[in-house]
């Protein structure tokens, strides 16, 4: 009984202990469950409070059992569209390009591996895509059984956009165009590789310096200031500049500047994008050449010619000056093409083009009209039509002279002439086509006249041109026939004794009689005949000095001759004088060359060199017509002169005009201070002579002593007893 009773008590005790333990377990489970519920609540409260992040949970079947309320804001999808859906359904909803990454994500979920920052694009209802990033960890119970996933996610669309912008900016910075970024102080903060490739400066050499380091000195400070002003005003500037590379070479640059403003609207940086446009410029120049220039001769073609002619017509209307259009056609050019081929004809056309340009001014235009026709535009001629016609004819004569020189066409020597038609135009000219037609008609008139001729369109001008052509032909014949002779005008000292003479050219024409110099010398200047005429005068004067040397009464007589600018400018003029003296045996000390001031206006240094070379030979140099030109004391003191000749225009009024008297006195004083002789020409009265003597001028020339007379009369004059002055015979 006791055993039984004791067993029951033991069982009761065991049952009580078990119940107590069960109660403790229940209490513990309740506490753990309460803790879990509180943790879940806190998790959900935190997830609900988060704005940029969304939270999610998956169960063991990988179904969404919870998403935070803000998931709709983050993912762009309603919560209902996610709850209850499996991760596989979500992956299938991804864009096609995200499928491989989604498959890997699904595999990780199914194998209960952690999900580390999985990024994908989630399609939206409006067709756009939103970048989402999620991370999650698997959840296991106390026994290690898989319960699901818990994780977070956020919208990274903005970050992805920024990353894309940065990648695009990086790619843009690596462009083939040069790029630099400057700060507020204009110093370059960054340059790309193309900058170094184009400019030759490395990044180390460029950083810290301003873009002005690329300046080629073609643009002044005002231009730079203008760019800065426009950039600040408009936020952008675009243009073309000439820049310089590190090696010193220059290149045309196309530059775009863009201002970058900070939050306050102030310009904080500037981005410059540039490129070398040398090839583009060269291509444009080539296009222009093909469009406006003749490919064979490189002269302007008809299109550019008509444009230049229109400009010349407008300029004539504006200035009132005349212009001229010269149409040149090569004589017998077709015969050359037919006999020697077109290659030979092309070679001739090229050589003709090369000969035309040197005969013209820079302001003139020479063009190839087509075939064997060339056109010359002469702008800004004289306002008077007669003078303008003379100028145009002079240029035409130069062109004909240049074209008649022999041509070397391969192994053959070729001779060619041209027929030239001239049409003048002025402010009343109707149009370019009319002027072209007039020149064309004039050219055909020259062809009809026997070729190798010059004809004007206007009948009156044609008559004058014919007269000049006839005069030129007569002069050439007269020079061959010995129709020219020298007259001599005495030069006397203060006592009236003849000390020398000026030799003056005269033309004894068989029909016209004695032709005055003013009637033929200007024409000789235009035609170029003045050069052979001047050579004849030089040779004749030297021979006359030799003849006088045999006469004791004339042996010490000096002889002055006038030298034209065209003659003096001949490259071998000094040699011509030396040869004339050597051939004749004349004393160089008795030969005096009279030059005008206008001759010294071009190439002063070259003229001075020639004058010094002549003086070294013993030849005297006299400056004729002093005072009426453009005398400059700065170069007058450098000229190797022996004598100044006072122009007769001052001597004529020396007794009636105070200004002329003052000028004469000044010239005499100037000559004395420079150690030069002084001679007054145009002395016609004793009162004029006395005034000159009072001023210190001891040498005179003029009608008071003698007119220009033939040789025999001059020699008789020098041998006769001389009073202080002689009346003209």
**In percent terms, what proportion of residues is strand?**
15-25%
CATH superfamily of the largest domain: EAL domain
Helical fraction: 40-55%
* Shape type: elongated
Structural class: alpha+beta
CATH class of the largest domain: Alpha Beta
In round numbers, the mean pLDDT is: 84
By DSSP, the count of extended strands is: 26
Number of individual domains: 4
Largest sheet properties: 8 strands, mixed, barrel
Indicate the CATH architecture of the largest domain. Alpha-Beta Barrel
Strands across the major sheet, in which order? 18-19-21-22-23-24-25-26
CATH topology of the largest domain: TIM Barrel
Unreliable stretches (pLDDT < 50, length at least 5) are 724-729
Tell me the radius of gyration.
Answer: 53 Å
Number of helices: 25
- How many angstroms does the end-to-end distance come to? 202 Å
